[in-house]
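Blinded run. Sample ID left blank on purpose so nobody reads anything into the name before looking at the predicted structure. Input follows.
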Amino acid sequence: MATEKEKELELIHSWSSKEQLEELTRIDRYKQRIVGIVRSIKVRETREEVDGKYVPVKKEILIVALPNGVTGYCPGEQFSIREYRGYSRFVGQAIEFYIDKIDLQSRILVLNGKTAQEAMIEELWEQLEMLQEKNALSSHRFNAVVSGVNETTRTVHVRVHGKDCFITPAEWSWNRRDSLNIVPGEEIEVVVRRFDKENGENGLVEVSRRLTLPDPYAFLEKLKVGDLIAGVVSTVDPINGIFVELESGLDVKASRIKELEEPVVGERVSCRVMKEITRRNHGRVQGRVLIIGYPNGKRTRRDLGDFLFNK
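Blinded prediction complete.
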């Protein structure tokens, strides 16, 4: 018979068979972590003492789908080492947990994501230090889950093996103009650029998505003066001049032969390399090309007021 607490929260039993219970007991006995998908969230109302008075408080419980048809429950305060105002962002995400309690009377399985995260982070620090000692940090790829993005700084936040890390805008892709199409919960590969276990309360880890992507410069560095290459006009400025994007946002200074009309931003052009293309910081390049033609035809520069005369 369901307890009053179960009725209030409408919790279903975590397991329904002896085999499921035996497997859960084995996982708990050997202190193994278990991966679950956050299925939904329920809110329970309770009362807590604040300044000598008991006040009503709403707390969230994460309902977690576990392997073999088992359902687990994780109180919000035991979900993460970081406190969140709400946990709806985690619905649908795969999270690792330890078993906190197997309640045989109510047949409810209580999970703890906080202790699992603490253990995972400690494992990550050990792995990072080992990779650094072997000079293998830059070649090792980690799986990361996107947490979100700071719209002001364009810094992307990801979680690597339980640790909250960040990606600067320059390290998201080779194209510095790429829009940050961030999908919370999306899995990506990253490379750790630097880490400092003693930085702040929880340490610092900066990672790069760009370094896991094909390097467009690998092609550009083989070009010689006089070679032909296609590109797209990225900038036409009366002061700074013309720039052409050659590969994945890698821009170079450009000029045009006198016979050609002024290019328009977004126009595809054929160019001749006039100055050798070399690498700069963050994958950017320097060099110079000469625009010699418009392979798709020349766009006409439309007069914004010409509609008045098209009658």
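Unblinding after everyone has recorded impressions. The radius of gyration is 28 Å.
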